[in-house]
## 1
Amino acid sequence: MPSYIGAIDQGTTSTRFIVFDKSGRIVSVAQKEHQQIYPKPGWVEHDPEEIWRRTREVIAEAMQRRDLGPSDLAAIGITNQRETTVVWDRRTGKPVCNAIVWQDTRVSDAVAEFSREGGQDRFRQKTGLPLATYFSGLKIRWILDNVAGVREQAESGEVIFGNIDTYLVWNLTGGPQGGIYITDVSNASRTQLLDLKTLKWDQEILALFGIPVKMLPQIRSSSERYGVAQLPAIKDVPIAGVLGDQQAALFGQTCFAKGEAKNTYGTGCFLLMNTGDAPIQSKHGLVTTIGYKLGDKPAQYALEGSIAVTGALVQWLRDNLGLIQKSSEIEALARTVEDNGGVYFVPAFSGLYAPYWQANARGVITGLTRYANKGHIARAVLEATAFQTREVVEAMQLDSGIALTVLRTDGGMVENDLLMQFQSDVLNRPVVRPVVRETTALGAAYAAGLAVGFFQDTDELRTHWDVDHTWNPQMDDDAREKSFRLWKKAVTRSFDWVDDQPRS
């Protein structure tokens, strides 16, 4: 009987392979970054072939580190950056162009065009999503319209689309030699092409966007045997779980009950709340998405607040301004000052996501005086993450009617004690960090393990979740509300900065 379960965690900046034991603890891990490509302002791309290369490398490395063979793994789960769009030739496996990343804003004109008739929410009832540059559907349309010859190939079924999950499953299970062509419901719900209730591709939206249905993958549950791996290091290991990264973190945090929520602090921030087996339509700027679906059981839905730029702002401070050498140095720099000195940083680099959905917003730093220094800017960078999270928490409570009593956190930024304390202060409620921080990969491993009987049920998974640290609020009410009021004021200064785009 195999002792371990594997997870591929393909993220926005890097790819990891993590091997977990039965208690959800990490046994082996390998990680490699891939290139971020910025051809034009607002455009963000990845090379899919580099991602596939990195995936093969980290699998081999992690297995080799602990001298593991295929027989040691019960199954492999996959979790992935969502909405990032790949179109490739099914005969050769070659992408027709670079992947268009979720942060990319090149389809903003199309968003405005489709919003003119029926508004930004014209597809929300079916898909749970507003018209925005974020989702995959309009990215597919852009590729069909702008890469020579691809539309004809798509209509004949020669080229196919996938988010990163689909691309990896297809390659892992054989690629051009019989690769399995599927996506799971959680990733499908991020395309703006899925009907949330029927769990099928919506023919009306496909027709409006001009996307042939034959270029779309088969939709499957998040936890079932899809096929077996063909790579030597994991030969014949079942690929048995697929979840978009934020849904995987929800699953890894064992938020299986209605009203349970988690916030992942990564490149962006993503707050998800389990809403049970019925979708809740948001009236306060959130999106309705599928949380997960276990085999033949009903799909579980979630409300999600997506924040585009949080950890990416720390990277920007490092790479573009050179104020720090490593991302981890931001906490020490922010601690050189007692407060933000009146400085607020709204990181609307690619517009604002939840709860505003303002594609024309751009980043602003406000409240600058001669007193302000790099410590204040570092502090404002961290505080921006916490303020944006509070906005999403408030919207989620209004939509769901459920008051969050505690916020479960995960992701790279939860190592930052200053940020986590400020998050607790600005929310005025406890913030907890679990023992296992890699909840995204863990969620994918859990989904795969359930499908093959490695884990018995979700009750067993709950027993693995333990608190590592809890932060409690220490800020007085007046200071909390004053700082949040000034943040909201700063946000309004970022609105409508881009004024040469067509208006919806």
Note: The radius of gyration is 22 Å.
## 2
Amino acid sequence: MTDQANSAGSGAGSAIRVLLADDEEMIRHGIRLILRHTDGIDVVGEAVNGAETVRLAAEHRPDVVLLDIRMPVLDGLAAIEPLIALDPRPQVVMLTTFGDEENVTRALRAGATGFLLKDEGSQELIRAVRAAAAGDAVLSPGVTGMVIRRMLSGGGAGAAAPESRVVGLTGREREVLVMLGEGLSNPEIGRRLGIGVGTVKSHVRSILEKTGCGGRVQAGMLAHQAGLMG
């Protein structure tokens, strides 16, 4: 179900393109109302299941996908991998009405940019979309502590030893990885290192490729697990 009217509303080439995926019509309606009246954000499509989400993402090339976890046909967790395989890769922010520990960590390990509870306020939703579009991690305050505790405990890791995954990083990439572990945004990293945001993004992409991390949240956790945080 595309929302062509919303897409045409901005007319600004720099607007953040958002694909909304949720099988509950009222949820989609509420989020759409918030975003369509926000400058610089266009809702370019809506989906009611994971399979439709992947199809519409390939068609509309959104910058950000707001993705419900529990949907028919293909759930949100299963949709993450084909979504982040697209080129260009959209940032995937998971939406849910509960702080389910297992689903949160599964989503982040699969490569989701972040996790937002549906009962967050409108300003938090807008902030999350803008942060995700900028390549920054998005974690609802209600689940941040839980995510850190579970991921640092190594639950469900299944990957190579953390220390071996960071061996191939350059010195500057290690610096950036540590700052990801501190939860800094790209502009904050750039200011600390005296480099541009574009250069920071290039370092983050290289870090993700070399370490096999699905996203910057994973990379931040890896910095802790590999003992880089001092």
Note: Residues 1-12 have pLDDT under 50 and may be disordered.
## 3
Amino acid sequence: MANTKELSVEEKLRALYDLQLIDTRIDEIRNVRGELPLEVEDLEDEVAGLSTRSEKLKQDLESIEEQIKAKKIAVEEYQTSIKRYTKQQESVRNNREFNSLTKEVEFQELEIQLAEKQIKEMRASMEHKKEVISSSKEKLEAKSSHLKHKKAELSDIMSETAKEETFLSEKSAEFEALIEERLLAAYKRIRSSVRNGLAVVSIERGASAGSFFTIPPQTQVEIAGRKKVITDEHSGRILVDSSLAEEEREKMKKLFSKF
């Protein structure tokens, strides 16, 4: 690999344009994936949330069932107590004892009424939770199926492009190493500030590619001379002449054709 200090201006421009072509190709590969990785991540979070909610509802059902069992046992105990107090009333010695037992019976009956009311409410709660579980199950199945489809789609894209992206990323790093730090920093700054990521563009029909502003003839001559790095005064992009650009595109076309 050449030392950055030994590069001529033309060599720097070629390295910059090659780097741009490689980075643009990487951008294209990543654009194919688009929002798919984020979609998969969001779906995974949604599926996990629905699963957690369903599990929580199932646990709630089990808890309510245990509470209902406990209430039923309590009702049986209250009924047993009523029978015992009623039986005791047959052998009381005075009204005070009879009235005391009557109050106990009434209290047990109230407890039974309260327990039965609570059992009824808990059963209603169970039915509601079962409906929510059923609805959540359908939603979970739909989301899980959608997630499976999206994962397969992402996996296909990744398997098709992963090798190329890795290769190009390594090539990008190689060309970055050829370019002096100041120039590379300028390239990255420009690239991050423009929407299409084009920091180095060629002259096309008297204007920088993608621009309607004509470049003065004298400046075009200087660009074609490849003696200094020149930027477009309107966009700030680094400019190269069309001949150099065409030569480097052909060179990179062969590199990209490996995939």
Note: DSSP finds six helices and four strands in the chain.
## 4
Amino acid sequence: MSTAWLLLIAAGLLEVVWAIGLKYTEGFSRLVPSVITIAAMIASVWLLAMALKSIPVGTGYAVWTGIGAVGTAILGIILFNEAATAARIVCIGLIVTGIFGLKLASSSS
């Protein structure tokens, strides 16, 4: 796996951090969670930009948001007791399948 793809995965994981962090900021009224969330936002977008030097923008953006969506949905189930219905799990699986499909179809490996 190339450095660009590793940067993209790290960017996606940081997207999960800031998306979950938004819940803990309570509307950016709590200092420490707000600082962590904003730092994760900046780092996530910066890593995405670095990855997009080598990965097509459509693929990179879709994978970045896909990692964020899947990670946030899973952590929402674990941390916030959100519904884990069969339909929701299947849809998360479809997003994961799409992420792997985009990786396989990408000209950057």
Note: The mean pLDDT is 94.
